[in-house]
C-alpha cells in the first residue's frame, strides 16, 4: 500500500502564522505537524509516501524530510498549484500509486490511541473498497457525519447536516483499493470548483463497499485547523509525553520499532540532535531498543 499526505492549502484560518510558512510545518509542541500524519502511515507499515504541498513550500518539506531513507522509507513530493479539494490528491498521486492500494491522510490531523497500529493493519488486511475511520464528536454539524450498521458497514454520509443522524464524524484518514484512482479521475468538481472526498466515499457506498471503524473511548482525533485547536493539540501531546515519558509521533522511534531502521541508525539520528530533548530521547530509545510492538 502507498501513502499520500495532503499538506497543501493556504491555512487561512491560522493567519498570520501561515503568512510565510505552511500550516503542516508549524510546531505541535515539540515536532512539526507533518510528523503526526507521517507517523500514522508508518504505523500502518507503509514505506512509500507522497507528500503533496503548495508550490511555495515544497522545498521546505524536502529539506525537513529528505527522501525518507533516514527513516527506512521512501518519500516523494508533488506540488499542488492551488487548493482543489482533498480528492485531487488521488488524481495527482495516480502515477505514484500505480496498481497499488492507497492510504490518504490529511496533513493537519493527529490520531493517537491504544492499539492503533494493529487497528490500521487489520483495516488494510480486510480492505475491500473503502475503509474510513469515525470519531464521536459533540458538534457533528461541523463535519461529514457517518451512519453505520452494527457490523460497521457504511449506510450514509451527510456533509455538515443540520440534524445529524449520528455523532460519528468522518476523520481525515482514508484507505482505498486501486479503484479509487478511476473514481477520483471521473469526479465532477463541486460548486466550489473542488474534487470532494465525500463524493469518492459515496461512490463506494453506492457499491456497498464502504466500511467505517469507530475510534472509541481512549482515542484522540485532533484537527489542527484553528489557533485554538493547534494550541489544544500541543497541550495534549505535552501532557502525554511529560506524564508517560514516551513521545507521540516520534517518527525515528516508530521506524526503529517497525524494523525500518536499526538501533545503531536510530542512535546516530539522536546524536545529530544531541543538544535537544528530542535527540536525547532517541538515544535513550536506541540504547534500550524496546521490543514491545508499536501501538
TrEMBL record:
Keywords in alphabetical order: Magnesium, Metal-binding, Nucleotidyltransferase, Transferase
Entry keyword Transferase: yes
Keyword Acyltransferase recorded: no
Cofactor section: Mg(2+)
SUPFAM superfamilies: Nucleotide-diphospho-sugar transferases
Matches recorded under Pfam families: NTP_transferase (PF00483)
Enzyme class: transferase
Record-level Gene Ontology MF annotations: glucose-1-phosphate thymidylyltransferase activity; metal ion binding
One Gene Ontology biological process: polysaccharide biosynthetic process
Cleaved signal peptide residues: none
Top-rank taxon: Bacteria
Reactions this protein catalyses: dTTP + alpha-D-glucose 1-phosphate + H(+) = dTDP-alpha-D-glucose + diphosphate
Domain Nucleotidyl transferase span(s) in chain numbering: 2-236
InterPro entries named in the record: G1P_thy_trans_s, NTP_transferase_dom, Nucleotide-diphossugar_trans
Entry EC no(s): 2.7.7.24
Function: Catalyzes the formation of dTDP-glucose, from dTTP and glucose 1-phosphate, as well as its pyrophosphorolysis.
UniProt family annotation: Belongs to the glucose-1-phosphate thymidylyltransferase family.
Database matches in PANTHER family: GLUCOSE-1-PHOSPHATE THYMIDYLYLTRANSFERASE (PTHR43532), GLUCOSE-1-PHOSPHATE THYMIDYLYLTRANSFERASE 1 (PTHR43532:SF1)
Protein's recorded name: Glucose-1-phosphate thymidylyltransferase
Organism: Streptomyces marincola
Amino acid at each position: 500500500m502507498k501513502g499520500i499526505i495532503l499538506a497543501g492549502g493556504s491555512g487561512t484560518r491560522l493567519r498570520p502564522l501561515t503568512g510565510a510558512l505552511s500550516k503542516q510545518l508549524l510546531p505541535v509542541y515539540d515536532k512539526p505537524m507533518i510528523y503526526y500524519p507521517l507517523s500514522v502511515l508508518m504505523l500502518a507499515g507503509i514505506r512509500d509516501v507522497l507528500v503533496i504541498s503548495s508550490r511555495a513550500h515544497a522545498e521546505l518539506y524536502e529539506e525537513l524530510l529528505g527522501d525518507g531513507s533516514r527513516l527506512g522509507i521512501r518519500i516523494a513530493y508533488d506540488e499542488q498549484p492551488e487548493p482543489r479539494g482533498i480528492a485531487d490528491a488521488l488524481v495527482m498521486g495516480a502515477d505514484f500509486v500505480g496498481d497499488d492500494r492507497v492510504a490518504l491522510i490529511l496533513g493537519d490531523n493527529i490520531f493517537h490511541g491504544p492499539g492503533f497500529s494493529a487497528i490500521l493493519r487489520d483495516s488494510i488486511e480486510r480492505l475491500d473498497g473503502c475503509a474510513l475511520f469515525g470519531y464521536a464528536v459533540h458538534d457533528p454539524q461541523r463535519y461529514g457525519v457517518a451512519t453505520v450498521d452494527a457490523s460497521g458497514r457504511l449506510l450514509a454520509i451527510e456533509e455538515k447536516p443540520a440534524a445529524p443522524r449520528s455523532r460519528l464524524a468522518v476523520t481525515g484518514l482514508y484507505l482505498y483499493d486501486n479503484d479509487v484512482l478511476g473514481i477520483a479521475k471521473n469526479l465532477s468538481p463541486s460548486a466550489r470548483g473542488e474534487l470532494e472526498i465525500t463524493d469518492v466515499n459515496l461512490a463506494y457506498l453506492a457499491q456497498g463497499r464502504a466500511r467505517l471503524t469507530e475510534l472509541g473511548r481512549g482515542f484522540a482525533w485532533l484537527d489542527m485547523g484553528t489557533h485554538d485547536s493547534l494550541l489544544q493539540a500541543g497541550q495534549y501531546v505535552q501532557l502525554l509525553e511529560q506524564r508517560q515519558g514516551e513521545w507521540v509521533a516520534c517518527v525515528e522511534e516508530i521506524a526503529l520499532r517497525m524494523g525500518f531502521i536499526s538501533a545503531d541508525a536510530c542512535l546516530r539520528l539522536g546524536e545529530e540532535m544531541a543538544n535537544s530533548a528530542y535527540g536525547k530521547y532517541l538515544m535513550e530509545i536506541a540504547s534500550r531498543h524496546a521490543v514491545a510492538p508499536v501501538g
